[in-house]
């Protein structure tokens, strides 16, 4: 390597974003992810044993997936290869395999292949990895922001350990920001910027768990804020706001976030928290979710979670769906919000939902026959078969009710619908008890 190569590399290093320059140099420097790297935890044990298994690191942007892969290679004295699933093909995999074979044969070196966005690999590309992962020629470390159990072939999943990385806490990101302010070699220490506490808090909070975003915003703030008369760079809250801009909505309507947010949305309605339900609905709308999808989920919740405790809930949900179909966004958000707040604040009952589950379970387990007196007697010959014989017409009796058998013989005494004491259902329960006790 000549002097010009060294100068060029140093220049690239200096021009790299702050987040890249501040990457940890060893595993002990990693901030966060203690559930994996803490004493006695899985990755700490793997490093101690110098035995890194094939992994898929699943977590949000900026949680340290690439950094962790590099550090695991260094800690296990393995050669590190990196491919992007977006750019690489089967040919690139073969090239890495050939180099890994050469290193093992001639230098006794292990190899780690890091594949970013592994969920974007085609089935053929994933299959091309399998034999080499199985033989242990290469240790595969894949990174993805999508749930790998949905997006990665089951054959490959069965040969790796899936580790979930968590978004960094606000306190973790503050630690990283503070380190970068005093690090003169890789950070902003040579500029000696003074950052107001409220500005630091804002950057750490607004980054949404993404260390890369926070660090790069801090660098922009420090480099773009002019020095005062004393030559000091003073970064205030307004400087921080301008440097990070609006928080990006972390939600991929085709990915894992789609399922997580809609799950939280429904559970918030069920849990009678209208504010949380509105938050998740606003997040879905901001991310471009189909409003009809939201409306359909609201209809399901109206039956499953509110049910007969407030039968009007279904009418409100259906009306919101109608409004969405006919007026569209942005105005449709208003009837959606009305339906969500109505359902979240309504009395709750899942009795109808549980009832159909029980009934279906019995249908699957038992064979049944319709009692003779309930069978259709309107066609020629039905009476001679005994159909409809001794049937009692309820409207001919007091209170329009008469006791008779309706369930099949094999299900006599079965009870599916257990009404609650919630809202309107309490009144219906009392009414049914009155009829049955006559």
From TrEMBL:
SMART domains hit by this protein: AAA
Keyword Cell wall biogenesis/degradation in record: no
Entry keyword annotation includes Nucleotide-binding: yes
Domain AAA+ ATPase per the UniProt entry, residue ranges: 51-172
Sorted UniProt keywords: ATP-binding, DNA replication, Nucleotide-binding
Entry-linked InterPro entries: AAA+_ATPase, AAA_assoc_2, AAA_ATPase_RarA/MGS1/WRNIP1, ATPase_AAA_core, DNA_pol3_clamp-load_cplx_C, MgsA_C, P-loop_NTPase
One MF term in the entry's GO annotations: enzyme activator activity
Family: Belongs to the AAA ATPase family. RarA/MGS1/WRNIP1 subfamily.
Protein name, UniProt field: Replication-associated recombination protein A
